User: What shape does this take?
Amino acid sequence: MTAMNAANPMTGMTGSPGAIGTQPIEYAAATPEVRAVYDDIMATRRTDWVNNYWKVLANHPPTLRRMWDTVKQVMGPGALDPLTKELIYIAVSVTNGCRYCIASHGAAARAKGLTPEQHAELVAIVGLANETNRHAVALDLQIDPQFR
Amino acid sequence: MTAMNAANPMTGMTGSPGAIGTQPIEYAAATPEVRAVYDDIMATRRTDWVNNYWKVLANHPPTLRRMWDTVKQVMGPGALDPLTKELIYIAVSVTNGCRYCIASHGAAARAKGLTPEQHAELVAIVGLANETNRHAVALDLQIDPQFR
Amino acid sequence: MTAMNAANPMTGMTGSPGAIGTQPIEYAAATPEVRAVYDDIMATRRTDWVNNYWKVLANHPPTLRRMWDTVKQVMGPGALDPLTKELIYIAVSVTNGCRYCIASHGAAARAKGLTPEQHAELVAIVGLANETNRHAVALDLQIDPQFR
Amino acid sequence: MTAMNAANPMTGMTGSPGAIGTQPIEYAAATPEVRAVYDDIMATRRTDWVNNYWKVLANHPPTLRRMWDTVKQVMGPGALDPLTKELIYIAVSVTNGCRYCIASHGAAARAKGLTPEQHAELVAIVGLANETNRHAVALDLQIDPQFR
Amino acid sequence: MTAMNAANPMTGMTGSPGAIGTQPIEYAAATPEVRAVYDDIMATRRTDWVNNYWKVLANHPPTLRRMWDTVKQVMGPGALDPLTKELIYIAVSVTNGCRYCIASHGAAARAKGLTPEQHAELVAIVGLANETNRHAVALDLQIDPQFR
Amino acid sequence: MTAMNAANPMTGMTGSPGAIGTQPIEYAAATPEVRAVYDDIMATRRTDWVNNYWKVLANHPPTLRRMWDTVKQVMGPGALDPLTKELIYIAVSVTNGCRYCIASHGAAARAKGLTPEQHAELVAIVGLANETNRHAVALDLQIDPQFR
Assistant: This one.
């Protein structure tokens, strides 16, 4: 599989396709196109580093660009405050059991002011919702007219 | 299955066990124990009705009591504001595809001030998180040291 | 799509591929091969009818045969008693939100002796497990050495 | 984040909120309130140790108390025997992929008499149910009238 | 909630936020911005109608635009053929139990040549994968070195 | 638990039931029945080794036989080409977060010709489908008549 390990000249991808541990592309090794995205990430987030999500996505530049544009739009300033947006993200990631995302967005939430008490409440709500979601389908609950 | 349809004198349960469409227990037909819980729900929520989740759970009074105590504690006043708590609940319910809970907590969120723009942002975040959760496991992302 | 509605002579399949509402194959319209499976289902279960799961699978006879052989082996007599096997099945189906399976296996459980109290306990456990599963990943619990 | 590492005097929480690896609270370091719950866990389970689920939840004493009360009620003696309750718990935990819960409740099941053959049957049923749950929604099965 | 039913002048959204049954925006009632997206959908797909997914998303034009751009990029011509892309989409939608998406992408797959036999094989694989995924976590399988 | 570690004479199972890390049965230690299955796996796949999925399932020979017969039938030659079958398998495994299956079927896909670009497209589609599945239920989309 040595050919696979070299960067594919057309797509910029490295690493075995589908291999676990697809390699992150570090800034120094990135194409100008990828570096432009990295620069925008760091400028927008006011950090001096890029995390593994972006560095591994960078193996496929169209997806890197699309996902960064999406994250900027969806997680940027809006009608919901930044911390609330992270709490929603963590709620989904916990429900799905995604350790990477829980760690990543947990760190983001802390940076946006999450306190220990708020975190405990978040975890309690996520657990409770996962519980009552199953009660609802087990008992075949009919949606009350007042909810429509 | 006629014996099953009558209320079980010991547990207070009605309806076929495991049947879809297990019957809600209306206030007028409820035991004093169940009515006490209904009264507390209506007083706490300042409403004059009880929804199907509680009325069907009432077939098993220990569970009705436990779940109401839990919901009061977890969804009550705390470090997270009431609307944020509902948004977290909806995020989980959408991820799990629970139509009853989406309707129920959507109504609760609206009553607590949810605007159309906020709702659109919530849905966008829930979709995005479900997407990136899968990217993370497909690409076997390693948790960055900065996140620990 | 009229060609799709006719039975495909080679595979015996009817209905639009992928269409919702793929048609059940009734006994009277079934090939001898399919009827043989239906007969075995009814003999094994001591019933005089076949449910929609089997009648729709019958559109693809190899899958009908394989799934009936599997169900006979996995759900047949063994080290776990028949009711316990149905409770496990319901637990999974509730977790996944499969209404058809909840209804189907709920009926099977009732036929095997499930009482209302047992059903209430089952639903409570399924809800609780879905709750603590999320606590575990949210809090990144490390497996205790005593559990290995 | 040094302030976060110290125990929060108001809530008793330690560790970064949302950090992976939130620290377990050992008995020796626990408040009297938390020790009381630990004592009840050990007395009820007739063990001389407390597992990581409880020790990490202990960072938020209200949740520790609530979850222990819940587990005592839901997993305690009832209409379902203790081993069956653990099998249901494992079925859910396997479906959700929760390694901690599979290990924890696997150990509990073994302590309650689970044999290798029973375990193999449990795993086979959980796999099969996850399979047929998907057949059901893919084929849009209609619930048979006999199941209602 | 009458104010909520009217179109919000700033965001263009109609309907109760979070209400089930959020209303689809028909072409005739759409803003020029939304019509432009509808036109592109119909031109790209060579159809004369727009489905409910787009018409309901149209309540929040930024999301409508983003999702259409995404779908065009991800589901457009590429290294995977169009039918294969739909099969992957259906596999996910069946796993998650999304009836709308199963119907929508099932129709798309048929239009791209899906045969009844191919559909049956797809359903069988999705069921089997959901089964073996649970075997793997239940048995705590270690990843073979040959797979890395 | 030493008795549990020895092979159970009746079932051939080794290892603690339900223990994480149930032991794989190597060829040299396998019964003739199990070796026959291993031989068929290696002959069918033209390999000289058997992976952990089969070696751990071998603790329960009926399940080993059943699953190998199933995999041969479902993943064997058919109306879908071999690579497409693996892509469907990976799509499900990513959605469910099964690391073992992603690694195993990723390797199989590579052996059947998967390129880096195809893999990137697969991951993008799986992410997108998981996103739109949630949009659909959050917005309570009604299935368009054209899809039936």
In short: Chain D touches chain C through 60 residues (CB under 8 Å). The radius of gyration of chain D is 20 Å. Residues 97 and 117 of chain D are 22 Å apart (CA to CA).
